[in-house]
Amino acid sequence: MVAYSHGRYAAAMRRFTIGAYYADKVSQLSIGLMYLNSQGVARDPVKALAWTALAAKRGYPRFEAARDGIWKNLYDDRRKQASVLSDELAETYADATCTRSRG
């Protein structure tokens, strides 16, 4: 979070991606919001929705609200693209596939 708060978005994305690999929902949400807000990456609402949908899988209300806010601003074709991408991301980053130890 320090890298992110200091505007070092490339470093933040690397760290969030590591956290996401361990199914860390804050990291997954942060990646989605970075795609939504063009922070260190090109703005991509489809990726933003896919990542926030993955983050919202545990039912955290704020994460669900972030996902829903992005969802309501996309047309159906973009929502479908995000759903496919979210399923692909889940193969690596979902709780059910995350059996890695922080060791």
Characterise this structure.
The structure is a single chain. This protein is mainly α. The protein has one domain. The protein is built from six helices and no strands. The chain has helices spanning about 1-5, 10-20, 25-35, 45-55, 60-70, 75-95. Helix 4 runs antiparallel to helix 5. The radius of gyration is 13 Å and the shape is globular.
Short description, anyone?
The chain is 68% helix and 0% strand.
List the defining traits of the structure above.
103 residues, mainly alpha, 6 helices, 68% helix, 0% strand, Sel1 repeat family protein, Sel1-like, TPR-like_helical_dom_sf
Helix content: 55-70%
**Main structural class:** mainly alpha
Order of helices and strands: HHHHHH
Low-confidence stretches: none
Question: What portion of residues belong to β-strands?
Answer: under 5%
Count of all domains:
1
**How large is the count of helical segments?**
6
The average pLDDT score comes to: 94
- Structural Rg: 13 Å
Instruction: Characterize the largest beta sheet: strand count, sense, and whether it forms a barrel.
Output: none
> What is the rounded distance between the termini?
21 Å
Shape: globular
Number of strands: 0
As an assembly, this protein is single chain
Protein name: Sel1 repeat family protein
Organism: Dyella thiooxydans
InterPro entries: Sel1-like, TPR-like_helical_dom_sf
